[in-house]
Specification:
Layout lengths: L3 E3 L9 E5 L2 E7 L3 H16 L8 H13 L8 H9 L3 H22 L2
Antiparallel strand pairs: 1-3, 2-3
Helix pairs in contact: 1-3, 2-4, 3-4
Length: 113
C-alpha cells in the first residue's frame, strides 16, 4: 500500500509508532488514500502484464470489482482516477458498478428461493 518506515523521532501525528517492550523502534507513515489507489492500480497493471486501458471489457469489469472491494471508490475522485487508468468514461465505470450491484441482488434473490 506504499507505507514508509521512518525513525520514531521523525514521526508525525498520524504516523503509527511501533514499540517493543516499551522502546519505540520505528514509525510507519501511511500514504493518503489517493496515493494508495495509485499503488493499487500499478499493482493491478503489473498483475495483468499490460496497461489497464488495453484490457478487454470483461477484464476491466473484473478490475472494477476488485477496486470496489478495496474501497477505491470511497476516495475523492476515485471514479475519475479509475476511469482514466482503464481508458473509459466515468459513465462506463458507473455502469460496471451498477452491473455488479444488479448481479449481486439477482444472486441473492436466487439463493433465497
Amino acid at each position: 500500500m506504499g507505507g514508509e518506515m521512518v525513525a520514531p523521532e521523525l514521526a508525525r501525528g498520524d504516523d503509527v509508532v511501533l514499540a517493543w517492550e516499551g522502546e519505540e523502534l520505528m514509525a510507519v507513515r501511511l500514504p493518503h488514500l489517493s496515493d494508495s489507489l495509485d499503488h493499487i492500480l500499478v499493482e493491478l497493471e503489473r498483475r495483468h502484464g499490460t496497461p489497464l486501458s488495453e484490457l478487454d471489457r470483461k477484464t476491466k469489469q473484473s478490475v472494477v470489482r476488485i477496486l470496489e472491494a478495496r474501497g477505491a471508490f470511497s476516495v475523492r475522485h476515485g471514479v475519475e482516477t479509475v476511469a482514466g487508468a482503464l481508458g473509459v468514461s466515468r459513465f462506463t465505470v458507473y455502469n460496471y458498478l451498477n452491473r455488479e450491484t444488479a448481479l449481486s441482488r439477482e444472486n441473492a434473490a436466487k439463493s433465497g428461493e
